[in-house]
Amino acid sequence: MITLIAAVAENNALGKDNQLLWHLTDDFKRFKNRTSGHYIIMGRKTFESFPKQLPNRTHVIITRQKEYTSENCIVVDSLEKAIAICPKGEEIFIIGGGEIYKQSIETANKLDITRVHHSFEADTFFPEIDLTKWKLTSSEFHPKDEKHDFDFTFETYLRK
């Protein structure tokens, strides 16, 4: 099972200048719960945007930089190699960035989306979700509150 997991604004914005555009505590908790104990695939820029490696996950980094290495990470030069290196029969998570999502959306079986109900100026975007190919199977709305500056909805899509 290949799952794309992302927090996505109404205009499909993901980030700007290699930074997230919002901080939603419940989204971070959900991301941690979903991905903990699994392989996570990401582009180099996404990996470098983290203050440190995410605990209890196997990091697979995709980069065209031939000499790139990072301690305790697997580094490959293509999405195909990243997927092939992960254990068969286990759920793997693709966590970004925009280019990696674009390359992998046709391969994925599941989309785990936090839809942030606001539009943002951004330079990185999630691909459009084609509802002829994807079925929304769950949706859980959360209003903004003292810990969350924006309304958001946890959405799960499965490939039709």
Q: How would you concisely characterize the structure shown here?
A:
The chain has helices at 25-35, 44-49, 79-85, 98-104; strands at 2-9, 13-16, 19-20, 39-43, 58-62, 73-76, 92-94, 110-116, 124-125, 134-142, 152-159. By secondary structure, the protein is an alpha/beta fold. It has a single domain (2-159), classed as Dihydrofolate Reductase, subunit A.
Would you kindly provide a written description of the structure presented here, covering whatever features stand out?
It contains four helices and eleven strands. The chain is an alpha/beta fold. The protein has a single domain, classed as Dihydrofolate Reductase, subunit A (3-Layer(aba) Sandwich). It has an eight-stranded mixed beta sheet. Strand 4, helix 2 (44-49) and strand 5 (58-62) form a beta-alpha-beta unit. It is globular and about 45 Å long. The model has no long low-confidence stretch (mean pLDDT 95).
